[in-house]
């Protein structure tokens, strides 16, 4: 297989149109047979439910080349399950979980020339998503839906070395109790855009959200979960309004089973975050981005950045993903 002629090491995180995407339509109460298409555009009515009432959710995962030259992706079954949860909460039809994984595999296979080589640090980002596509003006769910997966090559996250992030405790909220913070809905991002632009304008990389009911404990950032380290213990917030990160879940298992660490998933108080030595943000994009500083209204709380424990967690999970370390059964989905 001949790879596309791309400078993999210098790719950023932006949309690059690849050759094939997967499409399946839901009509008359059932999923039609899905398949690949070369058409990257979607045509729909001006009154489509997604355009008027934001009935949409998405997923994100990566395909990449391992040390022995295989193209794989990481735990796509968990993306399938999470998307099913998102669909149920958004009153959208679940795309069957086994078909989701098959569609991921089909999309990657068709775009194999776009999968970056081992060692480049780049990967092929996959974006499964679903939206209500028929015209809806009275407030109710759509009747017709489209499920799609496109692929786009993305560059190494830590280009030119790891820069620890500076983040702020946000004054705006991302999720309400009993709301939709725990599902991957586009609407959670729509309302965070104002705040992320404001954070960047004020010189911060990200917003750290606290719980909106009491504003006393830490939740997560706009697009990544948060972990803290104290001694040999990994501490991460437990809350019904956090998006359950697959990276975080995997890191907890790596900490316990590979590194012999203690793991605490519990409420994390804003008032205790100065007692941790390391802090990181976790998600598919970077695995872990180290945090150097959390700013809480003029008070700076400093961390070790890529400290020894976060480095070990990162190296171990990356090692498992890249096929250098034997992972738990089922973590690596071979594609070709
Ligand atoms: C997608 C997402 C994450 C990260 O989840 P991963 O499965 O690890 O990629 C964290 N927080 C939010 C709000 C997200 O949307």
* CATH fold category name of the largest domain: D-amino Acid Aminotransferase, Chain A, domain 2
Alpha-carbon distance between the two ends:
11 Å
* CATH architect. name of the largest domain: Alpha-Beta Barrel
What small ligands are held by the chains? pyridoxal-5'-phosphate
- Cα-atom radius of gyration: 20 Å
Helix share of residues?
10-25%
What is the strand tally? 18
Can you characterise this structure?
The chain is an alpha+beta fold and 336 residues long. The protein has 2 domains: 8-154, D-amino Acid Aminotransferase, Chain A, domain 1 (2-Layer Sandwich), CATH 3.30.470; 165-320, Alpha-Beta Barrel (D-amino Acid Aminotransferase, Chain A, domain 2), CATH 3.20.10.10. It has helices at 49-53, 76-89, 97-110, 186-190, 193-201, 246-257, 308-321; strands spanning 21-27, 30-31, 35-37, 56-58, 61-65, 71-74, 123-132, 145-154, 165-169, 206-210, 218-221, 225-230, 233-237, 262-266, 278-283, 287-296, 299-302, 332-334. Bound molecules: pyridoxal-5'-phosphate (PLP).
């Amino acid at each position: 297989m001949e790879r596309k002629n791309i400078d993999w090491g210098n790719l950023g995180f932006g949309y690059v149109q690849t050759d094939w995407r997967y499409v399946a339509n839901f009509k008359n109460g059932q999923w039609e047979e899905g398949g690949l298409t070369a058409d990257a555009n979607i045509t729909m009515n001006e009154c489509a439910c997604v355009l008027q009432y934001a009935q949409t959710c998405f997923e994100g995962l990566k395909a990449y080349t391992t040390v022995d030259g295989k193209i794989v992706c990481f735990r796509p079954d968990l993306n399938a399950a999470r998307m099913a949860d998102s669909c149920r909460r958004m009153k959208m039809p679940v795309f069957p979980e086994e078909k989701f994984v098959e569609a991921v595999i089909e999309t990657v296979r068709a775009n194999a020339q776009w999968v970056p080589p081992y060692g480049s640090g780049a990967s092929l980002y996959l974006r499964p998503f679903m939206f209500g596509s028929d015209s809806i003006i009275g407030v109710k769910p759509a009747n017709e839906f489209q499920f799609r997966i496109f692929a786009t090559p993305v560059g190494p996250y830590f280009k030119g070395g790891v820069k620890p992030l500076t983040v702020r405790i946000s004054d705006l909220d991302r999720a309400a109790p009993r709301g939709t913070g725990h599902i991957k809905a586009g609407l959670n991002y729509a309302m965070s855009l104002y705040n992320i632009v404001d954070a960047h304008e004020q010189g911060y990389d990200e917003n750290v959200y606290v719980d909106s009911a009491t504003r006393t404990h830490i939740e997560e950032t706009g697009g990544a979960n948060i972990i803290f380290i104290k001694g040999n213990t990994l501490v991460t917030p437990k809350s019904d309004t956090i998006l359950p990160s697959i990276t975080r879940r995997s890191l907890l298992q790596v900490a316990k089973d590979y590194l012999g660490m203690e793991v605490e998933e519990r409420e994390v108080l804003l008032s205790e975050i100065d007692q941790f030595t390391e802090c990181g943000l976790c998600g598919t994009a970077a695995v872990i981005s180290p945090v150097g500083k959390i700013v809480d209204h003029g008070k700076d709380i400093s961390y070790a950045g890529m400290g020894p424990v976060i480095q070990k967690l990162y190296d171990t999970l990356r090692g498992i993903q890249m096929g250098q370390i034997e992972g738990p059964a089922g973590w690596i989905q071979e594609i070709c």
